[in-house]
Design a protein that fits this description.
single chain, 452 residues, mainly beta, Neuraminidase, 4-stranded antiparallel sheet, 26 strands, binds calcium ion
Length: 452
């Protein structure tokens, strides 16, 4: 070996990496100059556990904020809360746990023709209905309400028309997110009913609710609120005739889908996040009739409910009980369960968000903005994240993810529970946080992603 070749072997990689760093810095600086810096602007506080933020589409620019504790508020663009709530459901929601709780007001959506018909839809957890299974926990209710014709900021409590009731064996894994699709139909996410691993004699089918087509638990449902009594079944729902499954089912194999939204641009994908058991948090693009795997798969792996912390040694199943192939998530990341320092695990629970289609941040357009609830069940330590569709599949994933770099939180960590993400009529994004893992108190806050 000559001295020269020795030197070049040592120096060439050093030179190459120094060159790469220089390029990266140059690109990074250039990119940072072009990108509008993202600030977390506190809009309102003093809530309990805010779950939904949407626009009151009456031309006033006002916002609606649903609080899990039972009240829906009207806010102006500056975040100031109207004295009179939009709708107070505290006498209709079930009694909350002293500790953690996943019940309460969980979903809110205005009818696509709200300006003309003043109809809106709410999902909330009511006490167990009289004819519900005796030892079950509560009944999740999807109801229609009318809003005053003279004042769009007041919903009429007595106008409630209950559309759908789902009995829930436990207080957790309810989901209850709703959104109208571009088809004008209402989509509702229902969790697997609670209890670890979708197993249990109280309220879980032998094969798990996610894979059982005779229960609405563990599903994405789709109904037509504009016809039928109390609603219509879309003709192309996969089990519309009711012979092989419940006609409301649109897709299945979900565990605790705390996130359901349509991309308002692109191909209007329905994006559903699914909270993992012990190993993987998922983002899924949900299609008609799709089977997303729970509880025989988690992430890209198989799932053994008797040994949930390890992937089974055999290859994951490729097809479900109906013979159709499972649909892979577009992105997974590790669930933080045991190793609290694992850098690949953002937290313990994925919180679904929205594909950004607003105007404030051109560099975010087309990215899916979401979060993870917290690194800890007891202490609020959540993160905001941005996922990007990638050109090539990486280990089966077609999206990539990185922390959403905020002006005051460059690592995306906002030091609170990321309870929910919201979106207004302009496509701008809101973050709802809770300072405690409780549905009591006044530690809930509403932030807007705003140039800063
Ligand atoms: Ca899945």
């Amino acid at each position: 070996m000559t001295r020269k070749s020795f030197r070049s072997r040592i120096l060439a990689p050093l030179f190459a990496s120094a060159f790469a760093i220089a390029l990266f810095t140059q690109n990074g600086t250039r990119a940072a100059d072009a990108e509008t810096r993202i600030g977390l602007k506190l809009l309102a506080e003093g809530f309990t556990a805010p779950t939904v933020l949407t626009s009151l589409v009456d031309g006033s620019g006002r916002l609606l904020l649903a609080d899990q504790a039972g009240v829906i508020y009207v806010l102006n663009e500056a975040g100031e809360r109207s004295e009179e709530p939009f709708l107070d459901l505290r006498s209709r929601v079930c009694k909350f746990n002293a500790g953690m709780d996943e019940r309460g007001v969980l979903g809110l959506a205005l009818h696509p023709q709200f300006r003309e018909n003043r109809k809106m839809y709410v999902v909330y957890s009511a006490p167990l209905r009289a004819d519900g299974p005796a030892d079950w926990n509560h009944t999740m209710r999807l109801s229609e309400f009318h809003v005053s014709n003279t004042d769009a900021a007041i919903a009429i409590p007595d106008s409630e028309r209950i559309l759908l009731q789902i009995d829930e064996p436990d207080w957790n894994h309810n989901s209850g997110r709703i959104a109208f699709g571009p088809d004008g139909l209402l989509y509702l996410s229902a969790g697997d009913g609670g209890a670890p691993n979708d197993v249990g004699s109280r309220g879980h089918a032998p094969e798990g609710n996610g894979q059982n087509l005779e229960t609405l638990l563990g599903k994405i449902l789709r109904i037509d609120v504009n016809r039928g009594s109390p609603y219509g079944i879309p003709a192309d729902n996969p089990y519309a005739d009711g012979k092989k499954g419940r006609p409301e089912i649109y897709a299945y194999g979900l565990r605790n889908p705390w996130g359901l939204s349509f991309d308002r641009g692109g191909s209007h994908d329905l994006i559903v996040t699914d909270v993992g058991q012990d190993r993987w948090e998922e983002i899924n693009i949900v299609v008609n009739g799709g089977n997303y795997g729970w509880r025989v798969r988690e992430g890209f792996d198989g799932f053994d409910h008797k040994n949930p912390r390890q992937a089974p040694s055999e290859a994951p199943p490729k097809t479900g009980a109906d013979g159709k192939p499972f649909i892979d998530p577009v992105l997974v990341y590790k669930t933080l369960r045991r190793n609290f320092r694992d850098p690949d695990a953002f937290g313990v629970t994925i919180t679904g968000g929205y594909v950004y289609r607003g105007k404030a941040f051109p560099h975010l357009v087309g990215k899916y903005i979401f979060g993870d609830w917290s690194r800890s069940m007891g202490l609020g330590d959540g993160i905001l994240l941005a996922a990007t569709r990638s050109e090539t599949s990486i280990a089966g994933q077609t999206w990539t993810v990185e922390p959403l770099a905020l002006t005051d939180h460059p690592d995306g960590r906002i030091k609170a529970f990321v309870w929910a993400i919201g979106e207004d009529a302009d496509g701008e994004i809101y973050i709802m946080t809770n300072g405690a893992n409780l549905v009591s108190g006044t530690r809930g806050k509403l932030y807007k992603l705003a140039p800063m």
